[in-house]
Design goal:
About 80% of the residues lie in helices and about 0% in strands. By secondary structure, it is mostly helical. Helix 1 packs across helix 3 and helix 2 packs across helix 3.
Length: about 90
């Protein structure tokens, strides 16, 4: 496990770009995606891209959670249906 004392603080430009990419992609993902390939290489643009990627990961995780919940609800409904048939 990594020692937190050895962790460097992120570059302020990277952090600013990350926050911009994250917030913009939450509000307007299509616009954010259109910026990604047009940004010049810099710490700020790398942060912007990583902020955008973070929202993609979060949406993917949220989608998976919803799918699991939906599947579990369906299984519960099926169990309840069969339970009623046994009576």
């Amino acid at each position: 496990m990594e020692n937190l004392e050895n962790t460097e603080a992120p570059n302020p430009d990277y952090l600013k770009g990350f926050n911009e990419g994250y917030l913009l992609s939450k509000e307007n993902p299509e616009l954010t995606k259109s910026f990604i390939d047009k940004l010049p290489y810099s710490d700020r643009s790398n942060g912007f891209k990583d902020g955008w990627k973070q929202t993609i990961l979060e949406k993917s995780r949220d989608f998976k959670i919803l799918a699991i919940e939906k599947r579990n609800d369906k299984q519960k409904d099926n169990k309840d249906k069969y339970r009623d048939l046994e009576k």
